[in-house]
Structure formats: C-alpha cells, structure tokens
Design a protein that fits this description.
The protein is mostly helical. Helix content is 65%, strand content 1%. A hairpin with a 2-residue loop joins strand 1 (8-9) and strand 2. Helix 19 packs antiparallel against helix 20 (432-448).
C-alpha cells in the first residue's frame, strides 16, 4: 500500500495516516495521533517531519532480540575460535617444547650430580645470536625449578613432556578461575567440573593420537580424569538431601559469562600460545602472581607474600610486582615475599658445588647486559631503543648513540613510573580498582624492565582478562570499551607471532621489532581509561 509522507506544518503531522498509524490505532483516530504529536512539540520533544518514530516497546524488543540472539552467537563463535587456537597450540606444542627440554636436562643433570650451569656458561662464551637460535635452550634460572622437576626425570623425556604440557594446561585453567575470583565471580566447581574433567581426560588421548603415542601410560592418565569425573557425579548423587539447583540458574549464568569474557582474550593471546609452544614456566608463575593479588584482596597479606615470593624464587624479575604492595604499604606482604624469595631462591645453592651462584649471577647479567637485550625477542622499551640507537644481530642502528638510548630508556621508564604512582591509589581498598591497578603494574613491569621477551608477555593475560570482564560488566564508557576491545584483539592476531623478525629494510625491521610493545601501550591506555571511571575508595587501611 503506497502512502505519501505527511506534510510538514510547523512540526505537527497532518494528512493521511501512515501504515504504522493504522496498525497502532485501528479505530482510525488520526486526530488523536496528530494531537499527541502536537503535545510532544509543546513539551519540547522533537518530532520529525517525516514518518513517526516507532514506539519504545518495539525498540526495546528489537534490542532484546539482538542481545538474546545475535550477541551470544557472535560471542560463541569468537570463543570457539579462541578455544580452537588454544587446542591447536597444545596438540603441536611437543614439536618444539625447547624450554621444557632445557628444564628436563637441568633436572637430569641435578639428579646425576652434574654442573647445572654448564650450558649457560657456553652461551656466555659463544655470545652469538645464531648460536642462541640453534640451541635447544639453556637452564638459566636459580636452581629451585630444577629441584622441583627432579621427580619428572623418573619418566623419559617424551612422557615427561606430556605431563609437563598437562601441568601448563592445568595452570592456564587455574589462572582463569583465579582471574574470575579476583574479578568477583569465580565459577563454582559444580558449574565447571562436569565439562572440565572430561576435557582434561580427553586431552592425553588427543595428544597420543597426534604423536602416535597411545599406550597404557596415556590411557591410565586419561582414565584418572574420567574416574575423578565419575566420583564427582557419584558424590552429587549421594548428597540428595540438598535441594538440587538448575544447571543454569542465574548465578551459574553470571559465573559462566564472566569466565567466557575472561577466557576469550586469554586463550587466543599470542604470548600464551608461544609459552605453550616452548613449554615455558611463565603461565605457572602468572598463576602465582595472580594468587598473590587474590590473597591481598581477601585480606591475607602473608599468603600474598608467600605466593609472590615463590614466583620470584624462580624468576627474580617478577620482584617488580612488589611495587604494587609497596604503594599500598603492605609491609607484611613485602616481608613475607622477601623471606620466601630469598630462602627458596638462594637456599638451594647451598646444595650445589662451589661457584654455582657466581655462574648463575654471570648468566643473569648477560641477559640484561650489552648484547642479549638487543635481540628482537626483547619487547621492552629498553630493547627497542637499543636496536634503534645501538643496533643488534638483525638491526642496523638508525643513529649510533648508545648514551641516547640509555637516556631515553631512563626517561621513559621514569615517566611511566611517575604516571603509575599518580594513578595507583595509596589506599589498600581491596576492591575492583585495586585489581585494575595491579594489572597496570604488570604493564609497567613489561614496559620498563631491561628485558621483556615475547614469552614474558604472558603476564599481560591478567590485564587482558580485566579489560574484557570490565568492558562487559562496567562501569565503562563507550570509548573505554572500544579501547579495551582493541587491546584484547591486538594480542589475538595470528600475524603477531614472530612479527618482530619481519621487514625488508633496516627501518621496517626496526618498526616491526616493536610489535608487542605497541600492543602493550594500547593495553596500558585501556587500563588508564578504565581507572578514570573508577574512583578510589574512601576507606581502606593505610598500613599494617
């Protein structure tokens, strides 16, 4: 039915009724509708000269349909894509797993009473980028990790690799749970166990199929998880005296929504996939530093220090997280972290030969010294400036000015620290803002440290999870949501993998060598935008 638009007569609609008016007012009350339009003008509400606006009920219904149908579908597709990338990384990890093999060799050497740092000293002697690329990794940490992995040497290297990969997968799952607990809605075991336990049981069988290793060992490992799932189901069946809850009650839906929002940027993040490929310990250390935050939020300062100290005992560079607790004046946490880190980090040296500590210290200085920080895998500000003004194995300097590189690094790190101090509140409010501030501390650590390799960017998974969940749950403006989405999507791009090795000219190689650093700045900006809409809490203890 063709209808002409009504004439514009001073903002009041006249003329024949539109099709929408006939449907809404079947009695043909055109005058009433015209009167309503005139009243709207008198009240100051604008009325268009053309077709009348649809009623709010229809708009709300359309928006509800989008939220209930289109948005969940898109999120499900995105989450499935992230899960596929994560699973693909797991199934192909054992093809590389270089860092795991370095850990395993170190534990084997330790068990045999050999020299734990012999490979590290060879790296110092050769001091060559090509030699470093051609090796299968070296053990360069304090001895604690090697001692912890000695029981793994009861298995051969292949089976031990499978167990270590499962440990990393379990650490990733535990980190996701801890991150959601930090953000206020941890999923209950009854919500996730029915799906998680069978998945963990199926994973060893998938690995066996992938590498033609299906044998009784893998079958028993898978059977262990399936039996745990059966025991869980039996325990729920026995406890029938408690009223059963629906599988997707409102609380469960809220928990799963938070978990999905956190998992989406985490499972697809290139730093995590690189860490799995190499068998790096970083994801387990990320779990420890996140547990330190969770303990702090729950008022358990000593436990927070123990968790942080254990992480520092493996990788001393993680001591920069202490800046957050220093800013919050958590002296108990700092004391517990120092005691735990020094005891577990330095104590095992007493069980090694004389000179082991000197060897480790020399290796640690090499990784933050002159040559190694210029390697393209170093994605800190210091590494980028070194490649720009000193050069590197694959980068000619745009200007030979080592002192300028050092001055710019100190200025950039100092400015970042000053901005961090201004943004991070000195009150220990133990609330949502503290979580964002802790995430910003991780960004500061990666930005200002002398060495932040691509696998070290696993520490960025907590900020990504915080941004994703806060963007979904608020409070956040449209601009901050867009910035958070861009930051999460940046580190999920497949091209980011080894992007720092690309480029046909010196300048292009230099610009490409900062691929992770650019994303780090984006994450930092998104966290700052999020902090600006969260006011510091009025209360909170100032000290112990």
């Amino acid at each position: 039915m063709g209808m002409r638009p009504a004439r514009d007569t001073g903002g009041v609609r006249t003329g024949r009724m539109s099709e929408w008016e006939r449907r809404v007012r079947p009695d043909g009350a055109a005058g009433a509708i015209s009167g309503m339009s005139a009243g709207a003008v008198g009240e100051g509400r604008p009325v268009g000269a053309g077709w009348a606006a649809p009623p709010p009920a229809l708009t709300r219904r359309a928006r509800g349909a989008v939220r209930a149908g289109v948005v969940p579908l898109l999120l499900a597709v995105a989450l499935g894509w992230a899960a596929f990338r994560f699973l693909d990384a797991i199934l192909h990890a054992l093809d590389v797993f270089a860092d795991y093999h370095a850990y395993y060799r170190a534990a084997t050497t330790l068990r045999a009473g050999g020299d734990l740092y012999a490979e590290g000293r060879t790296l110092l002697e050769r001091d060559s980028y090509d030699f470093w690329l051609g090796t299968a990794g070296q053990y360069v940490y304090p001895p604690l990790l090697a001692f912890l992995l000695v029981p793994l040497t009861a298995l051969d290297s292949g089976k031990g690799g499978t167990v270590w990969l499962l440990v990393l997968v379990a650490a990733t799952a535990a980190f996701l749970w801890t991150a959601t607990a930090v953000l206020g809605r941890p999923p209950r075991p009854a919500t996730v166990a029915p799906a998680l336990l069978p998945a963990l049981g199926l994973l060893p069988l998938l690995l066996g199929v992938r590498y033609d290793l299906v044998d009784p060992f893998l079958f028993r490992l898978a059977l262990l998880f399936f039996l745990a799932h059966a025991a869980f189901a039996l325990a729920r069946a026995v406890a029938r005296h408690r009223p059963p809850r629906p599988p997707l009650d409102p609380r469960s839906r809220a928990e799963l929504a938070t978990l999905a929002a956190a998992a989406l940027p985490v499972l697809a993040a290139v730093p995590l996939l690189l860490g799995l490929r190499y068998g790096q310990i970083d994801v387990a250390l990320l779990l420890l530093t996140t547990l330190a935050l969770l303990a702090y939020l729950r008022g358990r300062d000593a436990l927070a220090g123990v968790a942080l100290g254990l992480a520092v005992a493996v990788k001393p560079g993680l001591a920069l997280y202490a800046l957050f607790f220093l800013r919050k004046r958590r002296w108990t946490t700092l004391g517990a972290a120092a005691l735990t880190g020094l005891t577990l980090g330095l104590g095992p040296f007493l069980l090694l030969r004389d000179g082991a500590f000197a060897d480790w210290y020399a290796i640690a200085r090499y990784f933050t010294g002159d040559s190694y920080p210029t390697y393209p895998s170093n994605q800190s500000l210091h590494g980028f400036l070194q490649r720009a003004f000193v050069g590197g194995p694959r980068h000619a300097p745009i200007l030979d000015a080592p002192h300028l590189a050092a001055a710019l690094w100190l200025a950039g790190a100092g400015a970042a620290l000053a901005g961090w101090c201004r943004l991070v509140s000195g009150r220990a409010a133990r609330g949502p803002r503290d979580t964002v501030e802790y995430a910003l501390t991780a960004v500061l650590m990666l930005f200002a440290a002398p060495l932040s390799e691509d696998v070290h960017y696993v520490a960025l998974l907590l900020p990504l999870a915080v941004l994703a969940v806060r963007a979904v749950r608020g409070p956040a403006s449209l601009g901050s949501v867009a910035l958070a989405a861009a930051a999460c999507l940046y580190f999920a791009q497949p091209w980011l993998d080894f992007a720092y090795n690309r480029g046909a000219t010196d300048l292009r190689r230099l610009l490409a060598s900062g691929a992770f650093l650019y994303g780090l700045l984006l994450v930092g900006a998104a966290l700052v935008a999020l902090l600006r809409v969260q006011r510091p809490a009025a209360g909170g203890a100032a000290g112990d």
